[in-house]
């Protein structure tokens, strides 16, 4: 019987006959989540309402019909053009939706069950939203990270209430606080080289994926720094940047957690 001493030890993954079912479900919900990410990554920096207003064509301002919001398939059906004004729909929209689908598959393979799996998927979709915003604006807004942290904490409370694993919940929150403090220290040492938005995003991602334990979170953070270093050095080699060139870290942070979660899922298959 699993007790509270398990802390952050992951639950066993679902039986293998269910893997394909979980992957399909994860893909569908990931595509839907990718569509939401597309809207949020535009609305949050612009200060627009997040849930009330319907999506509109940025050229003709006509509300987008429900059938034209079906992820990826609507883009193919419309041949990449607005139904009302025939303006080309940017290719990045279906690509973001496909990225969301991929995240859904990663969450489906993530070797935990129940609410922990949902938290993983939500955290990675939040990370994708933050990466897109950071890449464009060089900042990760509190309007994204604060509500996301509250949502993941609530999911953690629900999980603890349903399973009785309060020690695991406390350990997860403690780990997220430790990660936040770690990134704040890096910011102080680098004299602003690391943004507070990056620190908050790292804590949010930790809340969603801490169920695999401290070392997995540490590996995800290490992978993000490694990816950022490789890209930074590569850009300097081709003379596209210098040591003083500003580079968003949100995309690399999200990538580190996605790769770690995927690796854990593949390992436990």
Automatic annotation (TrEMBL):
GO terms for molecular function: aspartic-type endopeptidase activity. GO terms for cellular component: plasma membrane. Residues 124-233 form the Prepilin type IV endopeptidase peptidase domain. Keywords: Cell membrane, Membrane, Transmembrane, Transmembrane helix. It is found in: Cell membrane. GO terms for biological process: signal peptide processing. Pfam families: A24_N_bact, Peptidase_A24. Belongs to the peptidase A24 family. PANTHER family: PREPILIN LEADER PEPTIDASE_N-METHYLTRANSFERASE-RELATED (PTHR30487:SF0), TYPE 4 PREPILIN-LIKE PROTEINS LEADER PEPTIDE-PROCESSING ENZYME (PTHR30487). This is Leader peptidase PppA.
């Amino acid at each position: 019987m699993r007790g509270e001493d398990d802390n952050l030890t992951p639950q066993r993954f679902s039986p293998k006959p269910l893997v394909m079912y979980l992957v399909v479900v994860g893909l569908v919900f990931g595509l839907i989540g990718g569509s939401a990410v597309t809207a949020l990554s535009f609305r949050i920096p612009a200060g627009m309402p997040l849930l009330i207003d319907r999506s509109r064509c940025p050229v003709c301002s006509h509300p987008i019909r429900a059938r034209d919001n079906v992820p990826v398939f609507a883009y193919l059906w419309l041949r990449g053009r607005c139904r009302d004004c025939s303006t080309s729909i940017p290719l990045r929209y279906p690509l973001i939706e496909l990225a969301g689908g991929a995240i859904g598959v990663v969450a489906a393979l993530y070797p935990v069950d129940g609410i922990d799996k949902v938290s993983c998927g939500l955290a990675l979709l939040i990370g994708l939203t933050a990466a897109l915003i950071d890449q464009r604006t060089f900042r990760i807004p509190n309007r994204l990270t604060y509500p996301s942290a509250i949502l993941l904490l609530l999911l953690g409370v629900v999980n603890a209430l349903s399973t009785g694993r309060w020690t695991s919940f406390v350990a997860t929150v403690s780990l997220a606080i430790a990660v936040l403090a770690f990134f704040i220290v890096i910011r102080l040492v680098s004299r602003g080289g690391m943004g507070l938005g990056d620190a908050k995003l790292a804590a949010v991602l930790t809340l969603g994926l801490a169920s695999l334990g401290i070392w997995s979170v540490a590996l995800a953070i290490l992978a993000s720094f490694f990816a950022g270093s490789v890209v930074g050095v590569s850009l300097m080699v081709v003379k596209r940047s210098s040591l003083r060139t500003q580079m968003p870290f949100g995309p690399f942070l999200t990538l580190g957690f996605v790769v770690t979660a995927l690796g854990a899922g593949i390992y436990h298959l």
